[in-house]
Amino acid sequence: MKQPFPAAAVLSALVLASACAPKEPWQARTLIFFDTVCDVNLSCSELEYIEAEQEISRIFETVEALFAPRAADASSPLVLRLYGRAQETYRRSGGAFDITIAPVMELWGMYNGQRRRIPNPEEIRSALTLVGMEKIVQKPDGLRLAPGMGLDWGGIAKGFGVDLAAQAMIERGIEKGFINAGGDLYCWGTNPEGRPWRIGVRHPRRQGYLAVLNIANLGTATSGDYQRYFEVDGVRYHHIFDPKTGYPARGKQSVTVIGPETTVCDALSTALFVSQRPEDILKAYPEYGAICVSEAGKITLAGKKFNVSFGR
Amino acid sequence: MDRRDFIKGVVASSALAPLLLSLRGEDKAGDTADALYLLSETPQACLPRLLEDLYGQGIIRARHIDLGRHPWAEDLAAALGSWKVVSRSERTDVVLRFESLLEAHRPSFTLVRNGRLVDWRKDNWLELWQRMGADERTRRLTIASFSNRREAAGLTGEAAVISIGGRIIDRISLKENGLRIYPGRTGRLYVRVKRGALRVEEAGCRHQICVMTPAASRPGDRILCAPNRFLAEVEGRRAWDTMIG
C-alpha cells in the first residue's frame, strides 16, 4: 500500500509556496499631461516604475510639443506618421474628422488663453475656406499648408501618445497595465484581480458612470460635448466642430469608441460624433465598436460588440 | 442594550453623528453603513461570535476585517482565527472603530441596519446578553461597521482627497458640510461640501471647467482644475479600475 504521506507533503508544500508567494507589485499613479489627469497603473516594481514613468513623461512631452495647436513642425517623422493616420480617418469618414479645423477652433476662442465667443456667419464662412485636408500638399520634406491654414491635432494626438507609451511599456516587459490620458486609454493583460480591466465610461451629464467596459488589449477614447464648452442663453457651444458647417456638431452628448488602437479610437470618436450616420463609417472599421449617447440621452451601440454593462 | 439605553448612553459619542442623522431621516444620501455596537470591557471575547453570526446570515459578505486602531487589535486578530485581517486600502467588509464613552454603561450589544435599531436579543443571543448584563459597567464601545447595499454598489463616498501638482495636500470628509479654500496659480479655489457632495464653487481659472463639473459624491468622482493643477477625487470602493470620458 502506498503511503499517503508524500502526496500530502507535496500538497502542503504547494499550499505553503502559494501562501508565501510574494504579492504581485502594482504601481498606480496620477500624472497631469495634456491639460488633464493621466492615470497609470502598471504591474511592475517601484524601481521599474521610476524608469517607466520617465519614459511615459518623455513620450507625452514630445507629443504635447509636436502636436500643440498650430505647432510649426510639419516635417518630423512622428508628425508625418500621425498625419498619415489622420488622413486615413479623414477619407474613411467622408471628412467628418479633419485636422485642418484649427482656424474654426481659433475663431470660436476654443484654445487656451482665448476668449470664447460666437462668431458671425460671415466669419465662419471665411474660416471654412481654410478647412479641408485635401488642401494640404505633402512633399518629401514635409507638409505644405496654404497661408492661414492650421492643424488641430486635438482629436488624435492624445490617443497616439497613449499608443506610443503603452507600446513602450509592453516592450519594457510590463505584461499588464493601463495608461489613461484623460479618457484616451490603452489596457493590456489583466487587472490586479486577474480579470479583464473594468473601464468606467463617464456619464455625459452627471457624475458617475454610464457603462463599464470589461476589456483587455484594447484602446478606447471618448468625444463629448461636456469636455470643453461654454453656454450662451442656455445653448451649449462645445469644442467638437462639424468641418462642413463650422458650428459645434449637434445630435449627440458623447461617443465612446473601443478597438485595437487608441489613435484610431480617438479620431473615430470625433468622426462618429460629427457624423449623422456613424454606422456607415464603422463599416470601414470592423474591429471597432462605439457607444453613442444622443442629445436626448438615448444610448445606442454601433459596430463591433464588446463586453459592456450599463450601470446607474 | 435596549433602545433607550442606547440613545442615552451612546449619544454623546461623536462617532454616532451619521447614524443619528440617518435615524432622524436627515441623511439624504442614505449612505449610513450597517453597524454592530458592542459595549464591552473584553470585545475579543464576544465580537467573533457576533460577527460570525452576521456572516452566517449573509449580512456580512466576506470574512474580511479592518481592525483599524482598535486598542485590542492583536487580541481580536487572534480571536478572529478564520477571518482575514486587511488594511483600509484593500477591499474591506468590516471596519472596526473604538470609542471611549464619557460615562460607563451596562455591557451590551446593538445592531443597526438601514438606519434602524434592531432588537437582537433572541434565540442564542439571549444568554450572551444576560451574561454580559451581569458584568461590570464599561466605557469601552467597539463599533463594527459593514457596507450596506448603497456603499457596496459604489454609490457613496466618505471622503475626498485633494491634491495640487500631484501632491496630496488635504483629505476632506464628505460627511460634514463646509467650505475650504485652497491657493492656486490663478487665484483661490473655493471648495464646498454639502450633503455628501463636493463641488468647486469658485475658482480664478479662465474657462471655469472645474466650476461647471457636476458635484462629486461617489467613489472615483473627480473634479480637475488643470490651470491650477488641482484635483479632488472621492475615495472608496469602485465598480471600475479606471474612468474614461
Describe this structure in words.
The complex is a heterodimer of chains A (312) and B (245). With 312 residues, chain A is of the alpha+beta class. Chain A has one domain: ApbE-like domains (T-fold). Helix content of chain A is 32%, strand content 26%. In chain A, the strands form four sheets. An eight-stranded antiparallel beta sheet of chain A has the order 1-2-5-6-9-12-13-14. In chain A, strands 7-8-15 form a three-stranded antiparallel beta sheet, with no helix packed on it. In chain A, strand 10 (229-232) and strand 11 (235-238) form a beta hairpin. In chain A, helix 2 (46-66) packs antiparallel against helix 6 (157-171), helix 3 packs across helix 7 and helix 6 (157-171) packs antiparallel against helix 7 (262-274). Chain B is α+β, with helices and mostly antiparallel strands. Chain B has two domains: 3-152, no CATH class; 159-234, mini-chromosome maintenance (MCM) complex, domain 2. In chain B, 22% of the residues lie in helices and 36% in strands. Chain B has seven helices and 15 strands. A seven-stranded mixed beta sheet of chain B has the order 3-2-4-7-1-5-6. The A-B interface holds A 30-32, 35-37, 39, 41, 112-113, 116, 178, 180, 183-185, 191, 197-210, 212, 220-222, 224, 228, 230, 254, 256, 311-312 and B 153, 155, 163, 165-166, 206-207, 209, 213-218, 220-222, 224, 226, 229, 231, 238-245. Strand 7 (197-202) of chain A pairs parallel with strand 15 (242-244) of chain B.
Q: Regarding CATH, which class of chain A?
A: Alpha Beta
Main β-sheet, spatial strand arrangement of chain B: 3-2-4-7-1-5-6
Mean of pLDDT of chain B: 78
User: What overall form of chain B do the CA principal axes indicate?
Assistant: elongated
Structural class of chain A: alpha+beta
Helix content of chain A: 25-40%
Largest sheet of chain B: 7 strands, mixed
First and last CA, distance of chain B? 50 Å
Order of helices and strands of chain A: HEEHHHHEEHEEEEEEEEHHEEE
